[in-house]
Amino acid sequence: MKTSLRRARLGFTLIELLVVIMILATLAGLAISRVDWARRSADTASAAAGITQAHENVQLFRTMKGVYPSQWDSLIDSTTTGVYGKIFNGHGVAPQLQVQTIPAVFGAPSGVVFSLQHAGIASILDHDPAATFASDSASVATIRTLNFMAATPLACVVVDSNVDKAIYPTGRPAGVKLVALGLGRGCTTNGLTLSSPPLCTAIDPSTSYGRFIAIFACYESGKRAELKGFVDSTLQLAANQLKNYYEAVPQ
């Protein structure tokens, strides 16, 4: 009897306290993982929704005007010597894009650049390497008119990249190049089918390009370029965003 009373006064034993602490730590770990999943899934769902919004509005512009909007962000430095470094800062995906100087075409209209012109994309906005915010670094001051009669630098998707494989699972056809162009503030769809270009909330706009990037299939034959989809600056397609979302749902 005396022993029982003494234990009641002393409270928990050391072993009991350790067991309680371990249980609380386990519960806290589960809660944190759930919160982290909720944050990541919200970012993924938001990115997928933004990509879908961009795609639908650009297609609406094409339906209204018969051509795609012009004055996309080129994703290229204003020096046109490289892909704008801040666009993919920290993502480790820049090698999947490269600047290709598309050769001039003489004679009948043809070539990759004419394919873009044929689709209504007459000019692009180059980026200012000195800009603070990558998402807004393109401006009218850096506008560049596309000219199929002169060699033209463009940001192209590298063969065998994730984007390339997602669009052409069995291999890209000969005579086709994938050109990446950003849907920025200067794009002519803004104010018509879009009030402003959507932002990807999962990306820090001070370090990386926070807007969405259109992937156009351009044809060396001069056939009209076709919009194949949108990605964010991690180069994930909308379908992959949704796939990742569902695969990450905790069981």
Tally of DSSP β-strands: 8
Oligomer: single chain
Tally of distinct domains: 1
Low-confidence stretches: 241-251
Distance between the termini: 49 Å
Enumerate how many helices there are, as a single number. 5
In which order are the strands of the major sheet placed? Answer: 1-3-4
What profile does the largest beta sheet have? 3 strands, mixed
Percent in strands: 15-25%
What is the average per-residue confidence, as pLDDT, rounded to a whole number? 79
Global shape: elongated
Keywords:
single chain, 251 residues, alpha+beta, three-stranded mixed sheet, three-stranded antiparallel sheet, 5 helices, 33% helix, elongated, disordered C terminus
Report on this model:
The chain is an alpha+beta fold and 251 residues long. It has one domain (32-247). It is 33% helix and 20% strand. It has five helices and eight strands, in the order H-H-E-E-H-E-E-E-H-E-E-E-H. It has helices at 2-10, 14-65, 112-118, 162-167, 238-247, and strands at residues 72-77, 97-102, 123-127, 138-145, 152-157, 176-182, 213-219, 226-231. The strands form three sheets. It has a three-stranded mixed β-sheet with strand order 1-3-4, with no helix packed on it. Strands 6-7-8 form a three-stranded antiparallel β-sheet. Strands 2-5 form a two-stranded antiparallel sheet. A hairpin with a 6-residue loop joins strand 7 (213-219) and strand 8 (226-231). Helix 2 runs antiparallel to helix 5 (238-247). The longest helix has 52 residues, at 14-65. The model is unreliable at 241-251 (pLDDT under 50).
